[in-house]
Task: structure prediction
Amino acid sequence: PHPANELLIQDFIDAPLEYKYMVVGYRALPVAVAYAINPQKHVPDLGQFEVKDTAVLPELTAIMERATKAVERELCKIDVLADRQGRFWVLEVNRWPGLRPFEEASGFNVAREFVGYLRGLMNQIRK
Result:
């Protein structure tokens, strides 16, 4: 048994897709990964995904950028469900994102992008 203060009760969201967004320097990367949800397990099927251009999802991308500012993290991964009515539900903002699954699915080098962002900050400081 778990103490009541350690439990979290969450509404079930019937969603066919889960988006994974990466944000660097409070800006969403140009790609996101949309995973199909396994209907039996209600988890993303890591073998069924589509890489999406974040420019075609401007409202969702704006939400992702606001979320990263809310937790004051310049590098994070955000998980979002897209329900059957077209609404988006932010599940979590990962403060310590695992880069490998996103990089392998999207082909985008997040680490290189983050290092470039840090170099830009250092150059601004030196000026």
